[in-house]
Amino acid sequence: MSIAAKANALWEYANPRKFLATSERVLPFFWITSMFCIALGLVWGFFFTPDDYKQGSTVKIIYLHVPAALMAINCWLMMLVTSLIWLVRRHHVSALAARAAAPIGIVMTLIALVTGAIWGQPMWGTWWAWDPRLTSFLILFLFYLGYVALWEAIEDPDTAADLTSVLCLVGSVFAILSRYAVNFWNQGLHQGASVLRAGAVTGTDTEEKVSNIFFYPLLVCIIGFVLLFVALVLYRTGTEIRARRIKALLARERVGG
Amino acid sequence: MIALLLRDLKLAFRAGGGFGLGLAFFLIVTVMVPFAVGPQSSLLATIAAGVLWLGALLACLLSLDRLLALDWEDGSLDLLATAPLPLEAVVTVKALAHWLTTGLPLVLVAPILGVLLNLPAPGFFWLVISLLVGTPALSVIGTFGAALTVGLKRGGLLLSLLVLPLYVPTLIFGAEVARRGALGMETQTPLLMLAGITAATIALLPFASAAVLRINLR
Fold first, then answer.
1. H/E element, A150
2. What distance lies between CA A17 and its chain's CA centroid?
3. Integer distance in angstroms from the first to the last C-alpha of chain B?
């Protein structure tokens, strides 16, 4: 199959019926593997890795904190992509997927913030500090809230999809801008990127990096969270499609009756 | 365009236009701050720049829901959309009118309120400069928010929720200029960043505002 034909095949999933059929077929796989990965990663991480010599067992919260934070950002990225697809190609499934993803993003952001606070209390001696990373996450949380609130506020679904898509695009620019503004505004307590770094792979990196003992279970957890996110998005998008159909059926009934 | 600008200005200045409400709000916020944090002049001096910026930002926010909603209600927005003037120009003029009636007066009274909050002497110049550079961005971003929520009943609270996160970078750099200026530190970097944000929002956001307004008018 040529690349163009493959690309066309991808767009077939924009058909709600095809989307529902396929997502129903693959969902069990995603549920089971994500649950397996998260369970494996957490058990491995909690019971079979040594305590850190400085941080003790509190270090183990990274198995929830890092994947949740990662997904919080990636969820927004996904919403950005699906919003763009909606604006350009007007596929309803795309807009509904963005709508379905937003509450998941809120929960992921909250998990990251709360686990960070629980970790920060014994380590930094404070539940909250106005550190750039923490602050950016709080701002991201506000962006999510505004996005969901706009979806809920508008009755006409197509108008809502259009407006939230534009908000997502503009919001993305401002979210990135805020990230750098916050960096400028305050130097932080939070450690830098220490899980994956370009230098760490080639061995040129001499800075501290998360040790392999912690890294492998963390990787399993991250994979589990990614799969869980995909499963949740597919599931919730299916729900949104069905809710839309029910609305359409009710409207038709009212007109017919 | 000039006719539209003059019309908006006239509407704002005449009775019921809400001109001055923003100023009064700015004044009262500034007066309330010492009640809340205590009257020590050294404490007030350290927070003056930030409080004035926040007050100006909130005063801007307060007047946003009138920006397009009134024209929406009486139908003149539909006429403006069908006029030969592109909608991008309409929203730009709207933002300009908002700035002239809200942002600019705020800039002018800010030094007076600075006296109340015991702002250090070198801070006055930088406060005015930072507000002068930063408030246009507030108006333009606010116009985008107003365009998003124009069709909604009771959109005011939602408007704040949508617009405030977008105000974060402007507030950070603007308040940073004023704060550094008050402490006598160099202000060039945040001032340039602030000017960059203002220039970029003026150049780009009207397109987003117009697009959103078209969707709402559909």
1. helix A132-153
2. 25
3. 23
* Cβ–Cβ < 8 Å for A150, A160: yes
How far is Cα A179 from Cα B169, in angstroms, rounded to an integer?
A: 8
* Tokens linked to A65: 């904190």
Within 10 A of A230 (CB to CB), how many other CB atoms are there? 17
* Other C-beta atoms lying within 10 Å of the C-beta of residue A253: 9
Residue A86, domain member (yes or no): yes
Q: Where are the domains of chain B?
A: 2-217
Asked if residue A245 is part of any domain, the answer here is: no
Task: Give B154's DSSP letter.
Answer: T
Q: What CA–CA distance (Å, rounded) separates A86 from A80?
A: 10
What number is the ipTM of this complex? 0.86
In a domain, A256, yes or no: no
Query: What residues in chain A have their Cβ under 8 A from chain B's Cβ atoms?
Result: 139, 142-143, 145-146, 149-150, 153-154, 159, 162-163, 166-167, 169-171, 174-175, 177-178, 180-182, 184-185
Quick one: CA dihedral B193, B194, B197, B202, positive or negative? Answer: negative
| Average pLDDT for runs of 10 along chain A of length 257 | 62 81 89 92 83 70 88 92 91 90 94 89 80 87 93 87 92 89 73 54 47 80 92 92 90 82
- Whole-angstrom Cα distance, residue A255 to residue A219? 54
Nearest to A181 among B155, B158, B173 (CB): B173
Please check whether residue B160 touches A, CB under 8 A: no
Closest CA to B45 of B170, B190, B181, B168: B181
What is the extent of the structural domain holding A66?
Answer: 29-239
Checking phi first, is residue B152 left (phi over 0); if not, alpha (psi -120 to 50) or beta?
A: beta
